[in-house]
Amino acid sequence: MDDGTQKLRTALQKAMARNGDDAAMKAEVAMPFERPSRVQAEAEGIHVRMASVLIVIFPLGGQWHLALMQRTAYDGVHSGQVSVPGGEVEATDADLLQTALREFEEEMGVQISESAVIGRLSERYIPPSHFAVTPFVACISAIPEWNVDSNEVAAVLTASIEEDLCRDGALQPTPIMMSSSVRVPFPAYDVQGHVVWGATALILTELAALWKTLPPTVRKT
Question: Is domain 3-211 in CATH 3.90.79.10, yes or no?
Fold first, then answer.
């Protein structure tokens, strides 16, 4: 692991410990409505499905980037959407981290070492699909060679954390077509011409809030 990656890992771990709660709250405030928690959903008798995702950060073109995926079209509420790679817990998974690592490898065709994972962000409940999602964060020293599962992944997107997530005005109200065929404005990011909204935008907003607390020298590769 190169020195820049190690410095970023150390700085992000400290930021998660010191500023994690504040970053989570900033993400909540940035969204247009309050999401229920998993505990609240379960109290209402909803069967919540557990899932985890993996944000993988790597250097590219002098900036730190992370990997997103556009899902293929399917008969489901998240069809065609941009998301962080990950998925539902399976009985053979030892814990949520193993779910995230397994799903990342299955979808993106890249094995990420558990030692590259530096921590987790806040669990987020997604009402439309009844998933409770835990995001993990990993840092690696180079962009991987993707070998995606074409049944699940339509495209791989690389988002610059500085330019796509942290610049002023990056999160903008964007009309989203709902199942009712009505367009509703939601806070969203533009990543390579793709609209990133919903739970993914919420997760990335929490990461961006943490990122902004890092020393400027660490935020550059």
Answer: yes
In this predicted model, what pLDDT tens digit does every residue of 15-32 receive, in sequence order? 999 999 999 999 999 998
For residue 172, how many other CB atoms are within 10 A of its CB? Answer: 12
Rg (CA), the chain: 17
Per-residue pLDDT band for 77 (boundaries 50, 70, 90) equals low
Domain ranges of the chain: 3-211
SS3 content of the chain, % helix, strand, coil (to 5): 30, 30, 35
Q: Amino acid identity of 14?
A: K
* Distance between CA atoms of residues 188 and 201, nearest Å: 6
Q: Which helix (H) or strand (E) holds 194?
A: strand 194-196
- Interhelix angle 3-30/198-211, rounded to 10 degrees, is 120
What's the pTM? Answer: 0.94
For 123-146, the pLDDT digits (tens) are 999 998 899 999 999 999 999 999
